[in-house]
Amino acid sequence: MNDLDALLTPEGRDLLEEVRGTDPAQELAVATRLRREHPAELVSAALGQARLRQRAVAKFGAEDAARMFFTPNGVEQSTRASVAAYRARRLTDLGVTSVADLCCGIGGDAIALARAGIRVLAVDRDPATAAAARANADALGLGDLIEVREADVTEVDTGGYDAVFVDPARRGGRGRIFDPEAYSPPLSWAVEAARTASRAAALKIAPGIPHEAVPADAEAEWISDGGDVKEAVLWFGTAPGAVRATLLPGPRTLLSRGLPDPEVRTPGRYLYEPDGAVIRAHLVAEVAERVGGGLLDATIAYVTADDLLPTPYATAYEITDRMPFNVKKLKALLRERQVGTLTVKKRGSAVEPEELRRKVKPQGPNSATVFLTRVAGAPTMLIGHPAVG
User: How far lies 293's CA from each of 265, 276, 348, in Å?
Assistant: First the structure.
């Protein structure tokens, strides 16, 4: 049985509605009851889709997730709706009215593009994935703007479209793929496809891509959403050589000014933890300049400063204590301060946060943050709390 075809029938749709929000602990009982009236395969497909929809809420929101159709890989690999909407806005600002969305997956980016008024050709070579993308375009009322095609993206003519968007597969049978040339299709092919676009192009890539792998004629953008780094994008037809970090919601964008690495200095009253997108984009120096600070250690992306100068690109903490790494001394200090809620952050330390929590056994009504890091090369603990100001 083709799960998606079966779920798109009137019986399948009714069954999907009936199992919506099913508690995983009740699945067996629900399945047993429903199999008295429906084919077992259809019941299993409906319950499986209900689970995928629950997982998809974090990326697509409850309203869209409840109407869309997913594959397991589609939920895992699709773009978060807020990120896709931001990218669609950038493309409309560039005057783009049509996009060839290559490796479209279950259609997350195509949906955002269509909602921005852009005509989309969505292409994927996997039959089940392309079918899900087509079903999603119809389910969300975007079928007039989204044409879904099951095909090998390397054989698709994109000449009739203003822009190209490519989201190569970055997972294989053994998990994540880190070599850009092992993407499917390879990054080199995607770059050449981008260069043929008449107006603009965007390539979604892993945020860990080495900066030296970024083509000289591309703009590189790292995007975080709610503090979590989501992806990097190579843009063509925008600002060649530019590097930016974009933080959502907002958006707030920090552009590289080519500043040299900040100097290492003694710890000040405040510690600034740059957003992950800022770190990935190598823009810690821009943050340090904004707050008048320097680095705790030449190899670690923690900025220290004497003054509190709030910035959206870093979270500020007021540091109350500094000591060499010593679990017993930390435990004694936390007991004296009656700290029961302990946030552990680390950069440049091999100690795991959960391991430290077990050892210090925090108890009490107060809270604190401890940073496990290095100061000028020496293992150090900095204790403090989020700065207010």
Answer: 8, 18, 19
Q: Which tokens belong to 274?
A: 């740059």
CB-CB contact of 341 with 366 (8 Å)? yes
- HEC letters along 221-273: EEEEECCEEEEEEEEECCCCCCEEEEEECCCEEEECCCCCCCCECCCCCEEEE
Distance (Å, whole) CA 154 – CA 103: 10
Interval 34-43 mean pLDDT: 93
The helix or strand, by DSSP H or E, that contains position 120, with its residue range, turns out to be: strand 119-124
Q: What is the pTM of this model?
A: 0.91
DSSP state of 366: E
Rounded-to-integer distance, Cα 102 and Cα 83, Å: 17
Helices of type H across the chain: 3-7, 10-19, 27-34, 40-60, 62-65, 72-77, 81-93, 108-115, 127-139, 187-195, 276-280, 284-291, 327-337, 353-360
CA dihedral 227, 252, 235, 115 (to 10 degrees): 90
The first and second tokens of residue 10, run together, are 């009137």
Q: How many residues does the chain have?
A: 389
Helix (H) or strand (E) holding 167: none
Residue 311: count of CB within 10 angstroms of its CB: 18
pLDDT more than 70, % of the chain: 97
* pLDDT tens digits for range 244-281: 999 999 899 999 999 999 999 999 999 999 999 999 99
Q: What is the pLDDT of residues 148-174, one digit of tens each?
A: 999 999 999 999 999 999 999 776 556
The CA-to-CA distance between both ends of the chain, in Å, stands at: 60
Return all residues near 27 (Cβ < 8 A) that are at least 6 apart. 47
Q: What is the pLDDT of residues 71-92, one digit of tens each?
A: 988 998 899 999 999 999 999 9
CA dist., res. 149 & res. 107, Å (int): 11
Q: 50-59: long-range contacts (C-beta < 8 A, 24 or more apart)?
A: 50/16, 50/19, 50/20, 50/21, 50/22, 51/24, 53/20, 54/21, 59/108
Q: What is the pLDDT of residue 173?
A: 54
The SS3 of residue 352 is coil
Contact 85, 113 (CB under 8 A): no
Report the C-alpha gap between 275 and 384 in whole angstroms: 18
